[in-house]
Design brief:
single chain; 448 residues; mainly beta; Porin; 16-stranded antiparallel β-barrel; two-stranded antiparallel ribbon; 18 strands; 44% strand; globular
Amino acid sequence: MVIHRTILHWLLACIGINAGLPLAYGVGPPLADGVEESWNARFQTTYVWQGKAPFNAAYSGSHSLSPEREKSYSFTGTAFLGMRPWAGGELYFNPEVAQGVPLSNLTGLGGLSNGEIARTSGPNPKLYMARAFLRQSWGLGDIQDAVDSGANQLAGKVHRRLIALTVGKLSVTDIFDNNAYSHDPRTQFINWSLMTAGAYDYAADARGYSWGAALEHYYDDWAFRAGRFIQPKLPNQLVLDPNIFKHYGDQIEVGHGHVLFGQPGKIRLLAFRNRTVMSRFQDALDYATLHGGVPDINNVRYGEQIKYGFGLNLEQQLTPNVGVFGRASWADGKTETYAFTEIDNSLAAGAVVQGSTWGRIQDSMGIALVQNGLSRQRRDYLSAGGISFFIGDGALNYRPENILETYYSLGAIKNTWLTLDYQHIHNPAYNADRGPVSIAAVRLRGIF
């Protein structure tokens, strides 16, 4: 009942805005270009309902996607509060509430179906601090561009050449591996392997946030980023390890903007390296050979391990209303997934069309294809009956996991969007003996 009351209040607020009532949450008339905000406040709320059709499965394990018909939902509400304490400084604070019930207890897929939900979600709302960070910028040169007011963005002017330091709690993907067409499950594709590079096991707690620092250098069309963030104490858990000099996730990224046939685009190259206490799949297999039984990564989680990987990220506008994107990522796959999902290599590509093409300026539609794969070590572990954090059918007839996702986002009323989404997944959790799976979703989102 809590979730339905929350949605009702939100819809009434939307209607109030359209009726010309006083605007809330700091939203007001657009500012003139270059006018500098000293503070702002924004609010978002997103509700996602998913329904999974039954499918054929030769067998199931403890971490399998259930072959039965299932329903799921998630709800998040976030306040984005920002202020400018001094010249060049920006301070942001994001309290967030979340609740939800995932499909199959959030197991049984490499590319999990809803980027808005975490295993820590539950049927009762939980309030927590999502972000609290300081961003300090130092301008280089005289050329400046105007930026609009938005969530975690104060209106004003920024130097085209600058150095920026961000310190505090946030999501690593707030800064790294951005993509204009495939990045935000609240507005775009909702599958986990389309939020970011599938093999990017970035440091985060179970809700997707971490403490750390990132340094960025923007020089005309070039962008250079480097950051270090702390890891959870245990894989995919909430409690973070504060020892940033011993257990951490490092990443560097180089990006370049270009113009191709008169249309803008970007390319980004990413490398990451994690150091923390992780299990190795080969150690689990060796332990089972020596002691008998089914291999279990929980028996061999000792000593610091290194995991590394790479990502390539492309976005290209074809016309003012049509854009395409692509990602390729790879991780060494010798150790367990620590903070994201169970993908060791991934290819993704898709297109997004804005509704102004057919006279619906607030609408958009997208389609994407993904192929996710596993390392040889992880395959051997799962084939021997091993169970990992998100997947484990008790056996494995390995095939790459293939995902098709498409959506249509309808600008319903002012500041509100209704999205219909469909995912078709072949070889769920990389197993040709199970599936295919069809998942339909309805997403309702509002911003204030």
